[in-house]
Amino acid sequence: MRNCRRGRRRGRFVARLRSLRGAGFAVGAAVVVGVVLVGAVPLAAQQPKLPDHDSLIAYLDSMYRAQSSHSIMTMTVVRERGTRKLTLEAWTKGEKDALVVIRAPAREAGTATLMTKDGLWNYAPRADRLIRIPTGLLSESWMGSHFTNDDLMRETSYDEDYTSTLSWTERDGKRYLQVTMKPKPDAPVVYTKLVFLLTPGDWAPVVWEYYDQDKLVRKMTFSDVRTVSGRELPMRLELQPMDKPDEHTIVQYDEMQLNVSVSDDLFTRRGLRRVAGS
User: Can you tell me the mean pLDDT for 226-248?
Assistant: First the structure.
């Protein structure tokens, strides 16, 4: 009888032990699965919150301009037929007023491009003529460089002429803020898509890509980042046409001032003639 009772107690003990082992396995499996699932969530959650769309686009529109600006630049144009350098002086005010004057070489000194709310003009100092640039020529080369009239003067607006989306992306193991822009109907632009990569924290430009349909046709890279009036801005821009790998144009900002005093008179024919001849 005692042996029988011992057998029953031993059976209940073994059964309980087996049930605990099973529960332990289930708990252990749940923990492992939980770790996997919890570990998987942060991978998506690690993506920081995207910045305010309107604030970012407004920043891009005024990045090198601010409320006003004055700068001295060296433009180096490398083409198959040779290399040439231009020294440029530029002023901007608000969203529409801009003036760029060539200071060197001497044979081109005084040549200028003026933009106001009324349009875009080139100034030839020898003939003392101001020639209007029609909208259809915004994509034409500026002074033989790989930059277009619109690149240099920015007559188009990222806010008014494009529909844009923000996202996060990775290139070479680094995270960037990506701005993808597509032109609005009837916008006076050439490229069917723009892709801008910016640093996440300070929105400093890194690479801007220009597409014709899905084909990358040119690329602008930025370097030599410096703090200018509280903004992190690259002082060196290199524009590379993808169909001409041996050619490029570099713009190096030698001096840059933002939010400086700039007279409205500067963006008139009289003001243009005055600074172009100085």
Answer: 95
Phi (first) and psi of residue 20, to 5 degrees: -65, -40
Residue with tokens 């040779």: 82
- Claim: this prediction has a pTM higher than 0.85: no
In this prediction, residue 188 has a pLDDT band, given cuts at 50, 70 and 90, of: confident
Measured CA to CA, the distance from residue 156 to residue 210 in angstroms comes to: 15
- Neighbour tally for 193: CB within 10 Å: 17
* Eight-class DSSP state of 243: T
Distance of CA 49 to the CA centre of its chain: 18
For every residue of 126-160, DSSP letters joined together read TTTEEEEE-GGGTTSBSTTSSSBHHHHH--S-HHH
Check residue 52 and report its DSSP letter.
P
Residue that the structure tokens 């349009």 belong to: 119
SS3 200: coil
pLDDT of residue 200: 93
The closest alpha carbon to 158, from 222, 206, 235, 95, belongs to 95
